From TrEMBL:
Keywords: Cell membrane, Membrane, Transmembrane, Transmembrane helix, Transport. This is Energy-coupling factor ABC transporter permease. Pfam families: CbiM. It is found in: Cell membrane. It comes from Cupriavidus metallidurans (strain ATCC 43123 / DSM 2839 / NBRC 102507 / CH34) (Ralstonia metallidurans). InterPro entries: CbiM/NikMN (IPR002751).
Amino acid sequence: MQIDDSSLQALLATWPLPTLSVAMLAWVVSQRPWRLLRQEPLQHAWLGGLVFLTLLWSARATVGTGVVVQLMGAPLAVTMFGLPLAMLTLAIVDLVSLLGLAYLAGQGWADIAWVSLAPRFIWMAAAPGLLTAGLQAVMRRRLPRHPFIFILGHGYFAPLVAAIVAGGLRTLWQFHLGPPHAGLTIGDSLTGAVVIGFGEAFLTGMLVAIFVVYRPQWVLTFTDEDYLTGK
């Protein structure tokens, strides 16, 4: 049985991202991150974050020849809730924001782009989230434990690098399958990834700085024992 180029391209476009999404969610469920929500202060932060991230995923801008600029919030979610709970949160956000956009567009159930759930989750949640968690783990091992270093490293540097790298990977994937829009170049998409990276760094850094000072119990990756007492 021979598979022509168009069939192979369609196969590559359909199965990897849903498979990765299911694998990530299976790992998340195995971690049972919802147990963290037994902490009452975190419940308020999580519900507020859920609403905020849903609104963030529902807003996007298209500039130039089709470059999409949309903040993801994944670095912020990972910094506040840790990787497993952040991925669970963003999976809910993915579904709710898609349903919200469909409602605003007046679409019925049959018209909703359900196939977009997996790509959105991988490129807006899993990829930047994993990169953020990895960078933060390296910084915890290599850098001194100091609140200022935490805010700069976890709040600004990690989100910036994670968003740019995730955007670059998404660009390579999209152009491997074919340009998503006529006239859009790899350079345009990478420029958009850099813009998004700085936006993610500003958003995450600003909120993390505020929360570390006024609501440190909302930031699970920040502990007084590590960053204030020096133990």
